[in-house]
Specification:
Distance between the termini: 117 Å
Helix content: 25-40%
Order of helices and strands: EHHEEEHHHEEEEHHEEEHHEEHH
Structural class: alpha/beta
Shape: extended
Oligomer: single chain
Radius of gyration: 33 Å
Strand content: 15-25%
Length: 417
């Protein structure tokens, strides 16, 4: 039997774009760290290579490669030094971006929806320019394959906002064009296929699943009238307003989603009639759009109440001072809008740094062993109020001095009177 090699040193070389600390963080999140003094694991080494390669691709190095070297080091038997060699290769930039299959929406409009993958701009024609010059222009135009799905979702969202409920973005086609003179930049052409589908109008609009709030109150929130073109943005805004309504009553887990019934879909429950018996097709008007019936499915959830309200970080200000600004009460309904208003009042006090919605600042957790209660914790940070007080006092002193200087003098006789 032979003992496996033991890792003593791990390092990463070959790239200035990715710091070793960032690599360590990524490996930790993926549970792929190579721990020192541990036995070498070939599978884990391959996993690390893949993770580091993906990090380089996120930076625009689509042709990056990562390999590893193993060297034995003195100091003991089977001790090794692993070096991961990162070869960035040329950085991939989009010289030309083209959409195919789009007729209703212009390519210029679709390009504006892309946030991560866009054309480099007018300088893309000067491919003979060195990379250092292109670096002065900025990182715009870098092709980021891993983030293309996010851009595709933005394009689909734009179509759905304008009634194209069945729009789809296909797999992009990448075509290499040329390399820069120093071989550090590779220009490519990106073709993105689009399937638009039909533009739908609303046939009917309804709400289902609601028992707490009446339908007559919910439907106007969505501003979805029959006969108008469908717009998903109105659905999102309507859901936000409905969430506020339910939140005031303690239904903070409320959610909803639209359910569609397309009129141009064949009915699976009706068998097709023979061609000889089929009714003659009635010609449609040129501007006639297909219809879709929209039903908002409401999932109300249960009503929640406040169990405990606690504060942390208030080293000077007492709890009772903070509670005066709270519009939530323990054992009362968990009103999400009242919580937002309470945070606004606390920010206006000036005693603490403003709560801006960062993770952990306003923490709402379900109470253990309580089916419909929550605990609310606010993480506060005291402001330096001494400086504010001193400033106000200084201004008051200057104002008093100015008033004294501007006061008219009186004669001794007038003073005696």
């Amino acid at each position: 039997m032979e003992e496996r090699q033991r890792v003593k040193i791990v390092d990463y070389v070959g790239s200035k774009k990715i710091e070793t600390s960032k690599i360590d963080e990524k490996l930790k999140d993926a549970s792929a760290q190579i721990r020192l003094d541990s036995f070498i694991d070939p599978g884990l080494v391959r996993k690390v290579e893949g993770i580091v390669r993906d990090m380089l691709r996120e930076k625009g190095f689509q042709f990056a490669t990562v390999t590893h070297d193993i060297k034995e080091i003195p100091g003991g038997p089977k001790l090794i030094h692993i070096t991961f060699n990162m070869d960035e290769g040329p950085k991939v930039k989009i010289r030309k971006l083209e959409f195919t299959g789009n007729k209703a929406v212009s390519s210029a409009t679709l390009k504006r929806q892309l946030k991560e993958n866009s054309e480099h701009g007018p300088f893309t024609d000067f491919i003979h320019f060195p990379t250092w010059f292109l670096g002065l222009i900025g990182d715009k135009g870098t092709y980021q394959e891993q983030k293309f799905d996010e851009d595709a979702e933005k394009v689909v969202a734009y179509y759905r906002d304008h009634g194209y409920l069945r729009a789809n973005v296909g797999v992009p086609e990448l075509k290499e064009l040329a390399d820069s003179s120093d071989k550090k930049t590779r220009w490519v052409e990106l073709k993105v296929p689009i399937t638009e589908g039909a533009r739908y109008k609303v046939g009917s609009f309804d709400v289902a699943g609601n028992t707490v709030v009446k339908t007559d109150y919910l439907k106007p929130l969505f501003k979805m009238a029959p006969g108008e073109y469908y717009g998903e943005k109105r659905i999102r805004k309507g859901l936000e307003k409905a969430r506020e309504v339910y939140g005031t009553g303690g239904y903070y887990e409320f959610t909803g989603f639209p359910d569609y019934k397309f009129h141009d879909d064949p009915n699976p429950n009706e068998p097709e009639a023979p061609a000889s018996l089929a009714a003659p097709e009635v010609p449609k008007a040129k501007d006639a759009a297909p219809l879709v019936d929209v039903t908002m499915r409401m999932q109300e959830g249960q009503q929640f109440f406040v169990n405990r309200i606690t504060f942390t970080g208030n080293t000077t200000t007492r709890d009772n001072v903070i509670r005066r600004e709270m519009r939530l009460v323990e054992n009362g309904v968990f009103n999400t809008e009242a919580l937002k208003f309470s945070v606004k009042r606390l920010n206006q006090l000036g005693y603490f740094k403003a709560l801006e919605g960062k993770p952990g600042e306003v923490d709402v957790q379900k109470t253990p062993n309580e089916p419909n209660k929550v605990d609310v914790k606010l993480k506060l940070e005291e402001q330096n109020r001494n400086q504010l007080t001193f400033g106000a006092a200084s201004r008051s002193s200057r104002a008093s001095s100015a008033n004294c200087r501007s006061r008219p003098r009186t004669s001794s006789a007038a003073a005696r009177v």
